């Protein structure tokens, strides 16, 4: 089965997590990190989820899931430790064309939650289409070792340079040439070495040579 990869912008969007255990906690944390408006339905919560509720970071209904609870949410994650409940949530969402990820039931998911490496504006997502989250986690750990925090700074600089070029260079062909020169200029290596002077010199050369 081939899937089309998408990155959803969930900031400010209503998302529902059904379940209050450790798995649900990890899902909730990921949603909170991207600014989603999270609601939890579960008769019991981990101490960390309860803390988030007490701090006003999410809404909570301390009860079992009921048919129709998914209505109005953009994304739903069924993360209880009871497969029949996860199936109930999934089928409820599928009938309403709601995005649903049911933990450990890939055949009832219409999207999968990838393992993610974030370095500033760099996002690397790893998915096994629900076949093996453990393998996805191992791949993520390898990528975390390869792509260090310097990539966040690298992209911050490239974003600023892109905005400058778009503002100051009207010719599309010259813009493209500058962007390609910047991408090949070894700016990342300068950042990794902490050599600010070499970084400034390479940037200036790129902006003037194309």
Task: Summarize this entry quickly.
By secondary structure, the chain is α/β, with parallel strands linked by helices. Helix content is 47%, strand content 15%. It has helices spanning 22-33, 47-54, 83-95, 133-146, 150-168, 172-183, 187-193, 196-209; strands at residues 14-18, 37-41, 59-61, 75-78, 99-102, 115-119, 122-126.
What would CATH call the homologous superfamily of the largest domain? NAD(P)-binding Rossmann-like Domain
Widest beta sheet: strand line-up: 3-2-1-4-5
Low-confidence stretches: none
Rg (C-alpha, Å): 22 Å
Q: Kindly state the number of beta strands.
A: 7
Shape: elongated
- The SSE string, one letter per element, is EHEHEEHEEEHHHHH
**Can you tell me the number of structural domains?**
3
What is the CATH C level class of the largest domain, in words?
A: Alpha Beta
Share of β-strand residues: 5-15%
If you average the pLDDT, what whole number results?
Answer: 93
The CATH architecture term of the largest domain is: 3-Layer(aba) Sandwich
Query: How many helix segments?
Result: 8
Helix proportion = 40-55%
Q: Kindly, what is the distance between the CA atoms of the first and last residues, rounded to a whole number of angstroms?
A: 44 Å
CATH domain fold name of the largest domain: Rossmann fold
User: Structural class given helices, strands, pairing?
Assistant: alpha/beta
Largest sheet: 5 strands, parallel
